[in-house]
Design a protein that fits this description.
Layout (H helix, E strand, L loop, with lengths): L17 H6 L1 E6 L6 H10 L8 H10 L1 H4 L2 E9 L2 E13 L2 E6 L11 E2 L1 H8 L3 H11 L5 E8 L1 E2 L2 E2 L6 E4 L4 E5 L4 H7 L3 H15 L4 E5 L3 H22 L10 H11 L9 E7 L2 E11 L2 E9 L9 H15 L4 E6 L3 H6 L2 E3 L1 E7 L2 H22 L1 H9 L4 H8 L5
Parallel strand pairs: 4-6, 14-15
Antiparallel strand pairs: 1-2, 2-3, 3-4, 3-5, 6-17, 7-8, 9-17, 10-15, 10-16, 11-12, 12-13, 13-14
Length: 409
C-alpha cells in the first residue's frame, strides 16, 4: 500500500458521480488496531480528526474498557486509490437480538468525527446516502446496523463526511471558546470581566487558607494521585446527585491512567491533569486532551471542604483556560452537555447529530424503535425548563442544581 500522503486538490471531486467516487474507494475491517497502526498514525498526523480518534486514545479504551462492555472492535480502514483515506473506530455490540456498530469510546468520547484525509472527506461527502450506506454495509458484514452518535456538523473547517446518513439532532451540544488573541481577547469576546474579577477575588480568599498552587502536573506520581482524587470525589458528588458513576465502571480509571502514562513526553498529551492546591492539598482537578491545538476537557471535580464557598472549580477552570492561552493553544473545548459555566464561557455551540443506518430488515425495524426513543430524549433535553425540573427530582438534585450555580463539578 502507498503510505505517502499527498496535498489535497481543492474541489477535486466536484461534479463527480457518486458511483465513480465509490469505485475509487475500498474498505477493510480489522479486529486489531495494530494491524492498521501505520495507516492510522499517518492520517492522525496529516488528516482531520479529534483527540477521541487518535490511535493511542482508542487503543487504551479497547484494552481497558471495551472488554467489559462486550464490544467487538471493528476498525474500518478506507482507502482512496489505494492510499489510506479514513479510519472509523467502531465497536459491535448486542442490542437485544441486533448486532449494532457504534463509535468506540462510549460516553467518554465527546465528539465522533472519524479520522480523514482531506481528500477522502471531500470524496465521501459526495457519495450520497445510498452509496454511503452500501460502503458501510460492505465494511461490516454480519451487522444489522449502525448508530453513530454525537457527530459534529464540521470539524476544523471540514464538513462531516457522513452527513448524508439519516440523522437526528443529538440530545446534547458541545461548547468551546476560541483562544485567538490570548486571555484578554477571550474575556472581551465572552463578556467575562465579571468572571475574571470573581476568580481573582475567590483566589485571594483561598490564599488566606493556605498557599495556592495550580497548573499542569508533570510528575507521574502526582498525576496518579490526582486521578485517585478525581475518582474518589467524583463518586461522592455523583452519589449525592443520585446519578450513576460512569467513572466507576470496570476499566475506566485504568483507561484514564493509561492515557496519562502514554502522554509522557508528548507535545500534545492524550491526558494532561491540571490541579488546584490550597495549603498543599488538592482541592480541584481537570483532565483534558490536546490535539491540533484544541484542548478537550474530559474530567473535572473538586473537594467539598472549607474551600468550597470560594469555588475552587470555577477558579481552576479560569486558570486552565488562561494557561492554555499562554501555551499557544487555539481552542478550549468544555465538552458536550449543557452546564451554565460552559454556556458562559463559550463563543461557539457545536450542533451534533446521531446517524442511523440499517443493513438488514431486522436492523431497520429495531433501529426505528431506537430512533423514536432517542428523539424523545433529545426533545426532553432541549426543553431547558422541563429538564431542570426533572433533574431537581433526583435524590440530591435540587441541592446539586443550586451548588452548580456556585461551582463547577
Amino acid at each position: 500500500m502507498n503510505m505517502q500522503a499527498r496535498p489535497t486538490e481543492p474541489g477535486a471531486f466536484a461534479g463527480a458521480e457518486p458511483d465513480a467516487i465509490a469505485r475509487r474507494l475500498t474498505v477493510e475491517r480489522h479486529a486489531d488496531a495494530r494491524a492498521i497502526e501505520a495507516e492510522w498514525r499517518l492520517l492522525e498526523a496529516t488528516g482531520i480528526g479529534t483527540v477521541f480518534q487518535r490511535f493511542d486514545w482508542v487503543d487504551a479504551y479497547v484494552r481497558h474498557v471495551a472488554p467489559h462492555e462486550g464490544l467487538e472492535p471493528a476498525f474500518v480502514l478506507g482507502c482512496l486509490d489505494g492510499r489510506p483515506a479514513f479510519v472509523l473506530p467502531l465497536g459491535i455490540a448486542r442490542q437485544g437480538s441486533l448486532r449494532v456498530a457504534r463509535w468506540l469510546g462510549g460516553s467518554h468520547s465527546g465528539y465522533n468525527f472519524g479520522l480523514w484525509s482531506r481528500e477522502a472527506a471531500d470524496a465521501v461527502a459526495r457519495l450520497g446516502r445510498g452509496a454511503l450506506e452500501r460502503m458501510l454495509k460492505e465494511a461490516l458484514p454480519g451487522v444489522d446496523g449502525a448508530v453513530l452518535v454525537r457527530m459534529p456538523h464540521a470539524h476544523d473547517g471540514v464538513a462531516q463526511p457522513l452527513a448524508a446518513l439519516s440523522t437526528l439532532p443529538s440530545a446534547v451540544q458541545g461548547y468551546s471558546v476560541s483562544l485567538e488573541g490570548g486571555m484578554d481577547a477571550v474575556i472581551a469576546r465572552t463578556n467575562g470581566g465579571a468572571r475574571r474579577r470573581r476568580a481573582r477575588s475567590k483566589e485571594r480568599k483561598m490564599a488566606e487558607i493556605g498557599a495556592v498552587a495550580h497548573g499542569v502536573i508533570r510528575d507521574p506520581a502526582a498525576v496518579a494521585e490526582a486521578l485517585d482524587f478525581f475518582a474518589e470525589q467524583k463518586a461522592l458528588r455523583l452519589a449525592e446527585q443520585g446519578l450513576p458513576n460512569v467513572f466507576g465502571a470496570p476499566g475506566v480509571m485504568d483507561f484514564l491512567n493509561d492515557l496519562a502514562v502514554r502522554s509522557a513526553g508528548l507535545r500534545e498529551p492524550l491526558l494532561q491533569v491540571t490541579q488546584y492546591r490550597v495549603g498543599e492539598r488538592l482541592r480541584a482537578v481537570v483532565g483534558s486532551g490536546v490535539h491540533n491545538g484544541r484542548v478537550n476537557v474530559y474530567i473535572l471535580t473538586l473537594a467539598h471542604d472549607e474551600t468550597l464557598p470560594h469555588s475552587p472549580g470555577q477558579v481552576l477552570m479560569y486558570r486552565h483556560v488562561e494557561e492554555s492561552c499562554e501555551a499557544g493553544q487555539k481552542v478550549f473545548d468544555f465538552g458536550v452537555g449543557y452546564e451554565l459555566y460552559k454556556e458562559s464561557w463559550a463563543d461557539t455551540v457545536h450542533q451534533l447529530v446521531d446517524g442511523y443506518v440499517a443493513f438488514t430488515p431486522k436492523g431497520a425495524l429495531g433501529l426505528g424503535a431506537v430512533r423514536l426513543g432517542e428523539r424523545a430524549k433529545a426533545l426532553l433535553r432541549r426543553n431547558e425548563k422541563l429538564w431542570k425540573a426533572l433533574k431537581s427530582l433526583r435524590p440530591g438534585g435540587r441541592a446539586a442544581a443550586q451548588e452548580k450555580d456556585n461551582d463547577v463539578d
